[in-house]
């Protein structure tokens, strides 16, 4: 094929390069290289378009030709004599009559039948699809998705399997039915509340981190960054298991298998992700033996490790799960990390090293402990703020409530979880508690023992709801305390439980405020409006449960039942459970959040309170700060990779 038709076009429109030149051949000779190139491009695009038409419309062209009964039939390449090759690679067979013609008609017939059959099948499939309900279609889509996932899994063998390690003794993970019918009735009620919370989340918030029970949709907060990691599912799993809600547990497990992916661009709180997700996944693994939970916990833990890349090894408060970049909260004193955050990793990280054989986890938390041990402590107290760049304390604020709380808890629990072999942890706990008792714990004029907050040498006579967990901690640590002070610490636990009960009992709703004062004639009541809320927190009920286990004093079950009834009465809505903004108002407004810790902790502790002691016995299980039970590791017989052999 030549392009004569284009020559005049180029001659007319493209200006000459030499002034005065006018003849056509001269024009061509003076065309610039780039212009020639553009011309060539246009030309080749045109040719491609022509050829493309043949490629992209083969069926239509076939059809038209057949329908018209043309002599010249366009069909895909067939080796025939006398063929003339068409530019598209197809073949034009010229009509000839006789034997060839007969054969061509047969081929034409069979092709036509095939096309007709294809069309009918497609039509049939479309009709069937239209007849299906929305649910059936969704189920079909899901099956297809699962198939794709399966295929992907087959292609990608995934992370290396973890080394086999002996499963620690797992005892008392189910049943626990109390012999007394009235207690059993209460326990059943708590299980029903759990069902309501879970089913509502399942219906309205599935896959989101939390639930808005009034708006009936998903909810999240900045601790989870911009993610949808199903925090409520992971946090609730072990409670479901312990309550014998196995269908629900399976549902959660399936979601985790298919959807929980940590490669997301989200900046999360290292502490919250550790206690809720790693703690929740490890507990679900130990309870159920399902490998998927262990694998997910390890995948997530790897994403947290970059948070420790600081000049001191004290981790950042937040880390981006995708980039590994870490930073601290903007509100924290002098760019500091928070004591209760970097000090609440030990239990989970020891288990991670145990399960993976990777010493890194253990070494990271032991490094934190060693660094703290070397530092001066004002009045023997640990300030809540520590700068991870300089290794210096920030503001001298010490509390057993928010910002400090679970640091002390994890010292004690590190000792318990090591089968009481980690004597360094026990000693650090004992020393810290001794200083706290000296400087922070006081009796009010009305005789209530409270834990205040130490701020730059001054005691603020205010106690947070969060600090109420300490009643349980003192009782749990009583056995093994120095100088035979077990009785003293059990008594201290009882006094804190009593004070916290008073903070509930002195409200209209019989639910406790976020913080309460012991000042200017005030006893265990909130003053400021922004301290009057109750957000379904567990700490007071947690302390009731520990006190019940150690004393079997029936008042703890009674107090727990009061709280359960108040929650059911004032926080229950048709779409789940919500926090309330003012516990002193008979007509409270809701905050419209069902916190994930309500399912992980509050309802679990209530259920255990109305169960017999053989469910989750404290000799075998240690609950992390989010109430996720981890088994005691008999470290007398095991040496963790990266650790010295344990000393008794
Ligand atoms: C929980 O996430 C944990 O108990 C944490 O240690 C502090 N408090 C919340 C619930 O109140």
TrEMBL record:
It comes from the Eukaryota. It holds the Pfam family Glyco_hydro_47. The active site is at 272 (proton donor), 405, 514 (proton donor), 539. Disulfide bonds join 468-500. It is found in: Endomembrane system. The chain crosses the membrane at residues 37-57. Residues 143-185 are annotated as: Disordered. It is a single-pass type II membrane protein. PANTHER family: MANNOSYL-OLIGOSACCHARIDE 1,2-ALPHA-MANNOSIDASE IB, MANNOSYL-OLIGOSACCHARIDE ALPHA-1,2-MANNOSIDASE-RELATED. Belongs to the glycosyl hydrolase 47 family. This is alpha-1,2-Mannosidase.
């Amino acid at each position: 094929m030549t392009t004569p038709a284009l020559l005049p076009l180029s001659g007319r429109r493209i200006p000459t390069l030499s002034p005065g030149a006018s003849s056509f051949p001269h024009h061509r000779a003076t065309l610039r290289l780039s212009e020639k190139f553009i011309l060539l491009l246009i030309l080749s695009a045109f040719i491609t378009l022509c050829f493309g038409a043949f490629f992209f419309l083969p069926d239509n062209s076939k059809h038209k030709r057949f329908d018209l009964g043309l002599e010249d039939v366009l069909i895909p390449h067939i080796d025939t004599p006398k063929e003339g090759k068409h530019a598209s690679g197809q073949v034009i067979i010229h009509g000839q009559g006789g034997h060839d013609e007969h054969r061509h008609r047969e081929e034409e017939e069979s092709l036509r039948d095939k096309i007709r059959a294809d069309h009918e099948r497609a039509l049939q499939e479309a009709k069937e699809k239209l007849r299906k309900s929305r649910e059936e279609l969704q189920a079909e889509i899901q099956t297809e998705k699962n198939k794709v996932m399966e295929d992907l899994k087959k292609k990608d063998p995934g992370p290396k399997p973890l080394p086999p390690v002996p499963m620690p003794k797992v005892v008392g993970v189910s049943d626990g039915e109390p012999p007394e019918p009235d207690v059993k009735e209460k326990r059943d009620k708590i299980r029903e509340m759990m069902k309501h919370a879970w089913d509502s989340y399942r219906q309205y918030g599935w896959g989101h981190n939390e639930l808005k029970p009034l708006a009936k949709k998903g909810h999240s907060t900045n601790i989870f960054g911009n993610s949808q990691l199903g925090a409520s599912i992971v946090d609730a799993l072990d409670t479901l298991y312990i309550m014998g809600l196995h269908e629900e547990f399976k549902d959660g497990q399936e979601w985790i298998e298919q959807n929980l992916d940590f490669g997301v661009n989200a900046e999360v709180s290292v502490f919250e992700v550790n206690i809720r997700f790693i703690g929740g996944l490890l507990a679900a693994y130990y309870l159920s033996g399902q490998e998927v939970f262990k694998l997910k916990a390890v995948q997530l833990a790897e994403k947290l490790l970059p948070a420790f890349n600081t000049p001191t090894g004290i981790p950042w408060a937040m880390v981006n799960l995708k980039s590994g970049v870490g930073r601290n909260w903007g509100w924290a004193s002098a760019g500091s990390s928070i004591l209760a955050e970097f000090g609440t990793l030990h239990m989970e990280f020891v288990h991670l090293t145990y399960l993976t054989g990777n010493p890194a986890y253990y070494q990271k938390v032991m490094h934190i402990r060693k660094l703290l041990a070397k530092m001066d402590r004002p009045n023997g107290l640990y300030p809540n703020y520590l700068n991870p760049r300089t290794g210096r304390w920030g503001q001298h604020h010490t509390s057993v409530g928010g910002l400090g709380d679970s640091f002390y808890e994890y010292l004690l629990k590190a000792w318990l979880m090591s089968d009481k072999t980690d004597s360094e942890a026990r000693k650090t706990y004992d020393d810290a508690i001794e200083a706290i008792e000296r400087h922070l714990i006081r009796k009010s004029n009305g005789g209530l023992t409270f834990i205040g907050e130490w701020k730059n040498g001054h005691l603020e006579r205010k106690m947070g709801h969060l600090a109420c967990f300490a009643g349980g901690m003192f009782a749990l640590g009583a056995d093994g305390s120095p100088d035979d002070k077990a009785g003293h610490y059990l008594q201290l636990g009882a006094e804190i439980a009593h004070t916290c009960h008073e903070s509930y009992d002195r409200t209209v709703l019989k639910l406790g405020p976020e913080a309460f004062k012991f000042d200017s004639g005030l006893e265990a009541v909130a003053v400021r409006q922004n301290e009057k809320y109750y957000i379904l927190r567990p700490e007071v009920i947690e302390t009731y449960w520990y006190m019940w286990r150690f004393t079997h004093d029936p008042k703890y079950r009674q107090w727990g039942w009061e709280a359960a009834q108040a929650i059911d009465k004032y926080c229950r809505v048709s779409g789940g459970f919500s926090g309330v903004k003012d516990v002193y108002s008979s007509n409270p407004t809701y905050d419209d959040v069902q916190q994930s810790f309500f399912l992980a902790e509050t309802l679990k502790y209530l259920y255990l309170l109305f169960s017999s002691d053989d469910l989750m016995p404290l000799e075998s299980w240690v609950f992390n700060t989010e109430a996720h039970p981890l088994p005691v590791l008999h470290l007398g017989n095991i040496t963790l990779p990266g650790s010295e052999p344990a000393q008794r």
